[in-house]
Amino acid sequence: MTAIEFNNKLMQLQDNLGYFARSLTNNDEEAKDLVQDTNIKALTNRDKFQPNTNLKAWTYTIMKNTFINNYRRKVKANTIVDTTEDLYYLNTTKEAKYESPDSSLAAEEINRNIKQLDENQRTPFEMHNQGYKYKEIADHLDLSIGTVKSRIFFTRKKLMEKLQDFSN
């Protein structure tokens, strides 16, 4: 297969590669980068492609492997190796916990609106925000899971309506 034929066939696969990249990344920008990386690798390794085989499968394999390698690289970059004797760095928080005046006022307003809710709505909502699972809330309050889910849903909706000013 000549270079021109290879390039033409590769260009015909661009839409398919884009769909596959979006299914892997769930992000349009990352998908475009992944397609571009795949094209570069396919073009630079054109000599390794076996004629009369499936070019689409070959490029999909390149894309999948590139995605996996990029993912592993990101995970490795976010890994912290703490060599201190008492694991000092792992046991400290990364962010300072300073509140801006705006955020503390917003938190007060949100809490005030939550406290104004009816007990039947507030209790499941607060338990859910504290990390309880729907089943645990249902068992604790002696309600069905569907009732718990709907109360939490409608409470969120009600709070979002009341707190529209804080949505930005």
Give a written overview of the molecule.
With 168 residues, the chain is an all-alpha fold. The protein folds into two domains: 3-77, Rna Polymerase Sigma Factor, Chain: A, CATH 1.10.1740.10; 101-166, Arc Repressor Mutant, subunit A (Orthogonal Bundle). Helices cover 68% and strands 0% of the residues. α2 crosses α3, α6 packs across α8 and α7 packs across α8 (145-162). The longest helix is centred in the middle third of the chain and has 23 residues, at 55-77.
CATH structural class of the largest domain: Mainly Alpha
% residues in beta strands: under 5%
Q: Can you give the mean pLDDT?
A: 85
CATH homologous superfamily caption of the largest domain: RNA polymerase sigma factor, region 2, helix turn helix motif
Give a quick account of the main beta sheet: strands, pairing sense, barrel closure: none
Coarse structural class: mainly alpha
In total, how many domains does the architecture comprise? 2
CATH architecture of the largest domain: Orthogonal Bundle
Order of helices and strands: HHHHHHHH
Helix content: 55-70%
Sequence stretches where pLDDT stays below 50 over 5 or more residues: none
**Can you tell me the overall shape?**
elongated
CATH T-level fold name of the largest domain: Rna Polymerase Sigma Factor, Chain: A
Radius of gyration equals 26 Å
* Total strand segments: 0
Number of helices: 8
Span of the ends, CA to CA: 56 Å
